[in-house]
Structure formats: structure tokens, C-alpha cells
From TrEMBL:
It comes from Chryseolinea serpens. Pfam families: Peptidase_M1. GO terms for cellular component: cytoplasm; extracellular space; membrane. Gene3D superfamilies: Neutral Protease Domain 2. InterPro entries: Peptidase_M1_aminopeptidases, Peptidase_M1_dom, Peptidase_M4/M1_CTD_sf. Residues 360-560 form the Peptidase M1 membrane alanine aminopeptidase domain. Residues 1-18 form the signal peptide. One of its GO terms (molecular function) is metalloaminopeptidase activity. One of its GO terms (biological process) is peptide catabolic process. This is Peptidase family M1. Keywords: Signal.
Length: 740
């Protein structure tokens, strides 16, 4: 009988909970059925498996930049190593210059409208006579025998004379050329900028050679066409590159300059060597006056620069007679990489003051959060209206006015883009995700570490991208114009807010609110070191973060990465109780029990504390509640502990659909405050509405959800109790952040 009564009591409790619970939605259901099945290549822990493999592509390249007709011609020998268990009958190469070839997919699929009084420049590319794209002059075996190939837009398939088996290597040659695009017209990542006042060019050259596609365990060949937004997916390899340019040009490139005595003056070499051992400030290797003099003379001779780079996924370079060059050494673990900048006089004085300093700051902070920067150089190049990254080199905007003046906003933007693009050395140049498919894995992850760097090294500047409060306008927007983070790059509508800002904000929340910095940093560093110089997928990141932290984050990945839900928590009501006692209660008023005081639907309003506390009673425990246990709790001691305590029954709603932790700020009658953080698992039974009881020593006068705007809550009006206007609180917070 006692057993029956015990089960009956439990049943009543469960029925009561079930009556309050809406239809189950499964926001806390595990991602096991969504993520790929673990295997011997990629484990359930998120680490590479015992049989993980990846291909290797080594390049020997000779290229010439023609400054008279603005063209590139070159030849390359590619040695491809098949480390996969598969037999390959053909190879796929990327021809990214073909994105601007006639009848390319980007142009033919572009959409738009006719706008009255539009700037003529908006039609410049559409009516241009420029002939873009590769001219592939031949694909041959190293013996000289022609290889069959065909080109499909931005991809080229090369058929092998015999199948390439596991563990084998194959070398072949490709010869090619193309016209260098004017970036001011076509807006490409690679191209030229012309300076009419002195008649010179700055060339920032990338995607300039046919490059191997990735072949991996996940999808075989990654030969998705290049449509302009989804960037690059590339295997690692070693590079030897010879670049022939006008003799008065200075080149910055991926890798180490191997023949400085052939291309630099004696004075430049002395300054270069000094920079390698100077840690406190940049050394000017080519001065502004020297660069300005070369702008006038324009040599007709040629020089060939040679660069070597090991274990990189790509190669890029910049070349101009206009370049000023400075550099300094940076201490990173046991290495001393060279931070350096190349910029025209149009970038000064801002670039001389800030660029190399920003490179140094980035290497130091990123190395602490991920892994020690392994490459010998990190280069920032001044280029108009761009931020673009390649191994060891990046092209960055930030140009002062003609008189050299610049605003704080321009300075902030210039430093921010340098930090971001240099940071890309870590994501995806080292932790080498598939940019063509999953943008957030490099842009979002990198934007997150960028924010950490900016907050630490530039606290006086107003960096906010990645902070939860900054994302609120986007999260409040039209959901039909949103896409989940787990969306292919080409289908994203709001590219910056989603793939950069939303992803960065999610990681910032994980670090600051969900996991805490110490635990997050350990897990994040584990991910970086596990997947350095490898090809991680989203599942590898998700699984590693959980494996290295013992925090179940599937609810977070589902909500933040797989949906367009937002955070909109609200305080629906607060009931204030005090236990009945024989002594006079607050303000010496007798507390009397009234039938129905605690009944549901009693008709009372619980929208303020004005009516004082409701009384409630505790009674001695019914022995049947003890079940088979022989021990007994001390009822009187429990009641004594609750005497004079303030008990608050708080009902919260999740209106936005995105489950997140609950952060409550309690303000007490004596003016003190307390912040209480409750894990997101509080929503695990009822994802829409919860009620929780809090026992407080002090009397509460005010309750606020998410007081420091850590969760990107889209409506702060319903985050307070008693109810009042709170929009000004959010505005005040934003103003305070900007004024720091």
C-alpha cells in the first residue's frame, strides 16, 4: 500500500509537469543522427583517426609579370602525391581566373535591377572589352608528351596516362597566361590598381596559377565551381616560385626570399638583416623617398625573385616600384618570424605607424589561443578597398586622404582588417577547412579570435563585431532573409552578419557565458592543434569542443548553427512568498492564511512587489514520502532555515525559440546586486516556459534578465521585473561600450 501511494504521488507530479509541457521539439536532442558517422579517418571525439590521410601537391613555378601590357605568363611543374587508399584516373585543377572569362557562370547568373540615375561605374564591368580568364597553352607529362584535358568553366580535368595508385606520385607540366584585371572595375581579389598621377601600378596577384583541388575522405574531389563568394579549398605542399618583374619593383610574397643578393641593393640587404633581429620597432628597408624616386625613373630592365615555402596551401605575391617596405622580428615560442608591410606612399603615414605593429600583435595573440605561428614571415600589403588573405601574405585597405590625414574610423578599420587578414594565417591557412562549402569555419572562427586580439591590444578602439549586443539588429531582422550558418557560401544572403558576425558572436558567447574562458580556451586550443595542417569539417570542430571540455553543446550547435531562431527570453511573472510564522511578519503586520491563496488562477496580478509577500506553510513530512528509507529529515530544522527568507517563484518564457542560459541580475532592497547564471539545460523539459523557485536572504526590488547583453536578446522590454521601460538601458549600454 505504501509503495502504491508513493508511486501515485510520483505520478501526480509527472502529470502536473506534462500538463505544463508543450509538444516536444527536441532542441536538446543529440546531433548524432545529423553529424557524419565517425570512422577510422575522423573519430567520434573530433580528432583525426588512425587512418586519416590527405593529399600533397608540390609546385615549381616560373612566372613573369609584364608591366607594359599588364599580363601574367607562366609555367609550372606539379608533383601530386596520392596518399588516399583510392586509385585515381584523373586529376582536377582550379582555374579561378576563369571567373572573369567571357560567358562565365558568375556573369551569366548575376541578377539585378535597372536603377535610374545609377553611377556609370556600376556598368563598367558589364560593358568592358577586357578579355579575362586563362589561356591554357598546354598540359604535358614531364617528358613533353601532351596530356588530354578539358576545361569546365573554373575547373580543369587532366586525364592520367595510367591510374595513380595509393602511395604513388605523378608530375606534370602546365603552361598558361592571362590578362591582369583592373580591380577598380571588376572588384576581384587579385589584380592591379593604376595610379594616374605617377603612371604606375600596384599588383596584388593571387589565384594566378592552375591549382590542385582537394581530394579527401569526405567527398572525394572538391570541384565545386568557383562563383566568387565561396573561397578556396586547397591541399598542402611545398613551393618554389621564380617571379620575373621590372628591375625596380619590390616584391612581397608567400615564403622566404632565397636570392636577396640578386634583387636587393647592398643597403637594402643590410636593413633587411637588421630587421630580422630587431624586436622593438619596424626597420625601414625601402624608404618613401627611395620608392618615390623609382616611380619617376621606371626601369626597363628585369629581375627574377625566388621564394620558397614549405607546407602551405597556396601562394600569392604583390609587386610594385611604388612599395615602401618595413619589417621587424617577433618572438613566438622558439621562432622569430618576420612581421612586414609593403605599401605605397598613398598609405602613409598610417601604414608606417600601424601595419607591422598590427601584424606583430596578431601573431602574438593568435599564437596564444591556437598554436605558435609556424611560418617564417607574415606580410601585410596595402591595396585599395580589399581585405584578402593567403599564406604568409594578405592585401588590406585603409588609405588616408591626400594630405595624409585620417579619421579614427579609418584607423580602426585599417587595423581591424590587418588583424583579420593576418589572422587568416591560422584559419584557414593552417587549420585548413573547406572554404568553398563552409565559410563560418574560417571567417567566423577568425573573426572571433580577431575580436579577442582587438580587445586585448586595442582597448581604446571601438571594436564590437562578435559582441552579442552588436548582433541584435541582425537577429531582430526578417527571417526570410536569413540562412542558418550551416549553409553553403553561395546561398547565404546576409554574408557578413551571418558567416562573420553571427559565428563570431556564437563563439564569444560560448567562451564568456556558456563554458567560461578557461574551459573554452583549452578546448579551442585542442581543436587548433589537432587540425593544424589538416582538413577539418564542422563535425570535427563540434566534437572536439565537447570532447575536450566535457560540456554537452549539441543544443548550442543545433540552435545557433542549424537554425535561424533568436534569443527572446522574458520574465512573465514573479511571485514573492514568505513562510508563515507565529511571529509578526514584515512591517509588524499579522500574516493570516486565506483559503485559495496559493491556488492556480487565483486572479491576482503578479506584476510588482507592491502587495508584499504571499504567505505559505510547511507541514511535517508524511512518512510515506520516505519510501524504503529508514532515515528521516529534520522538519523543524528545515523550517527554521526558511524563517524570514524571501522565496521567489519566477516564470520565464523562451519566445525566440533559441535555448540559451538564463542570466538573472537580482537587485536587493539594500542596493546590492547579484548575478546568477543558470545553464541552458534549464529548458530541457519545457523549451518554451519554465518556473523556478529561488530562496534569498534579502528582499528583492528588481530583477533583470541578461543585464550585460551577453545573449543577443532581441527584446529587452520584457527582461525586467517589475515591468518598466528598458530600451534606454540597452541604448545606454551601447553608448558606454563605444565610449570605452
Amino acid at each position: 500500500m505504501k509503495q502504491f501511494l508513493m508511486y501515485a504521488l510520483i505520478l501526480l507530479v509527472n502529470v502536473a509537469v506534462a500538463q505544463q509541457t508543450p509538444q516536444w521539439q527536441g532542441k536538446f536532442e543529440q546531433l548524432d543522427q545529423t553529424l557524419p558517422t565517425p570512422n577510422e579517418y575522423r573519430t567520434g571525439s573530433g580528432a583525426p583517426g588512425v587512418k586519416y590521410w590527405q593529399q600533397k601537391a608540390d609546385y615549381v613555378i616560373s612566372v613573369e609579370l609584364n608591366d607594359n601590357n599588364q599580363s601574367i605568363s607562366g609555367s609550372e611543374t606539379i608533383t601530386y602525391t596520392n596518399n588516399s587508399p583510392d586509385v585515381l584516373k584523373y586529376l582536377w585543377l582550379q582555374l579561378d581566373q576563369n571567373i572573369i572569362a567571357p560567358e562565365n557562370t558568375l556573369r551569366t547568373t548575376a541578377t539585378g535591377n535597372v536603377v535610374d540615375s545609377a553611377a556609370a561605374k556600376t556598368y563598367a564591368a558589364q560593358v568592358s572589352d577586357f578579355k579575362g580568364g586563362y589561356t591554357v597553352k598546354g598540359v604535358k607529362e614531364v617528358s613533353g608528351k601532351a596530356l588530354p584535358y578539358f576545361i569546365n568553366n573554373t575547373m580543369m580535368r587532366v586525364d592520367l596516362p595510367q591510374p595513380l595508385r595509393s602511395g604513388e606520385k605523378y608530375s606534370f607540366n602546365v603552361e598558361w597566361s592571362f590578362n591582369i584585371v583592373d580591380r577598380s572595375v571588376f572588384g576581384q581579389r587579385s589584380g592591379l590598381e593604376f595610379f594616374p598621377e605617377d603612371g604606375n601600378y600596384v599588383y596584388t596577384i593571387a589565384q594566378f596559377f592552375p591549382r590542385m583541388c582537394v581530394y579527401d575522405d569526405y567527398e572525394g574531389w572538391q570541384n565545386k565551381q568557383f562563383l566568387g563568394r565561396g573561397e578556396f579549398t586547397l591541399p598542402f605542399g611545398d613551393y618554389k616560385v621564380r617571379i620575373t618583374v621590372p628591375a625596380d619593383h619590390i616584391i612581397g610574397a608567400t615564403g622566404v626570399l632565397k636570392n636577396p643578393t640578386d634583387v636587393l641593393t647592398k643597403t637594402e640587404i643590410e636593413r633587411f638583416e637588421k630587421a630580422k633581429v630587431t624586436f622593438d620597432a619596424p626597420v625601414i628597408i625601402v624608404t618613401q623617398s627611395e620608392a618615390t624616386q623609382k616611380e619617376k625613373t621606371k626601369s626597363t630592365q628585369k629581375k627574377t625573385w625566388e621564394f620558397h615555402a614549405e607546407n602551405v596551401r597556396d601562394f600569392a605575391f604583390a609587386s610594385s616600384r611604388k612599395f615602401i617596405w618595413d619589417a621587424q622580428a617577433v618572438k613566438i615560442g622558439s621562432k622569430t618570424p618576420l612581421a612586414q608591410s609593403f605599401y605605397s606612399k598613398e598609405g602613409n603615414p598610417l601604414w608606417e605607424k600601424e601595419s607591422t605593429k598590427a601584424v606583430k600583435n596578431t601573431l602574438e595573440v593568435y599564437s596564444r589561443y591556437t598554436l605558435d605561428y609556424p611560418y617564417p614571415v607574415a606580410t601585410s600589403v596595402h591595396s585599395a578597398s580589399i581585405g584578402m588573405e593567403y599564406p604568409m601574405i594578405c592585401f588590406n585597405f585603409g588609405r588616408p586622404a591626400k594630405d595624409g590625414t585620417y579619421t579614427e574610423k579609418l584607423k580602426q578599420g585599417m587595423i581591424g582588417v590587418v588583424v583579420h587578414e593576418v589572422g587568416h594565417n591560422f584559419f584557414p591557412m593552417i587549420v585548413n577547412n573547406d572554404e568553398r562549402q563552409t565559410t563560418w569555419m574560417d571567417e567566423g572562427v577568425n573573426s572571433f579570435v580577431q575580436l579577442l586580439t582587438e580587445l586585448e591590444r586595442y582597448p581604446e578602439l571601438k571594436y564590437t563585431r562578435g559582441k552579442p549586443a552588436d548582433l541584435v539588429p541582425y537577429m531582430k531582422g526578417d527571417k526570410s532573409q536569413m540562412r542558418p550558418l550551416m549553409t553553403n557560401s553561395e546561398q547565404v544572403i546576409q554574408f557578413g552578419p551571418e558567416q562573420y558576425a553571427k559565428a563570431a558572436t556564437g563563439l564569444f558567447m560560448l567562451r564568456e557565458t556558456v563554458m567560461g574562458p578557461e574551459l573554452f580556451d583549452k578546448a579551442f586550443k585542442e581543436y587548433a592543434t589537432r587540425w593544424a595542417f589538416k582538413h577539418p569539417k564542422p563535425a570535427d570542430f563540434f566534437r572536439t569542443m565537447e570532447d575536450a571540455s566535457a560540456v554537452d553543446l549539441d543544443w548550442f550547435w543545433k540552435g545557433w548553427f542549424y537554425s535561424t531562431d533568436n534569443v527572446d527570453q522574458s520574465i512573465d511573472q514573479v511571485k514573492w512568498y514568505k513562510m508563515r510564522t507565529s511571529q509578526p511578519n514584515l512591517e509588524k503586520k499579522e500574516v493570516t492564511a486565506k483559503k485559495g491563496d496559493l491556488a492556480q488562477g487565483d486572479g491576482k496580478k503578479y506584476d510588482s512587489f507592491n502587495n508584499g509577500p504571499e504567505p505559505f506553510s510547511l507541514i511535517e513530512t508524511d512518512p510515506r514520502l520516505n519510501g524504503e528509507f529508514q532515515s528521516r529529515v529534520d522538519d523543524k530544522a528545515i523550517m527554521q532555515k526558511l524563517e524570514d527568507k524571501n522565496i521567489y517563484e519566477v516564470t520565464l518564457s523562451n519566445k525566440g525559440g533559441l535555448v540559451m542560459p538564463v542570466i538573472i541580475e537580482w537587485t536587493y532592497k539594500d542596493g546590492t546586486k547579484e548575478i546568477e547564471k543558470i545553464p541552458a539545460e534549464i529548458w530541457r523539459i519545457n523549451e518554451q516556459k519554465i518556473t523556478k523557485v529561488f530562496v534569498k536572504q534579502k528582499e528583492v526590488v528588481n530583477i533583470v534578465l541578461d543585464p550585460n547583453f551577453e545573449l543577443s536578446d532581441i527584446n529587452v522590454q520584457d527582461n525586467v521585473f517589475p515591468k518598466r521601460e528598458v530600451e534606454s538601458k540597452f541604448d545606454d549600454f551601447k553608448k558606454k561600450e563605444k565610449s570605452k
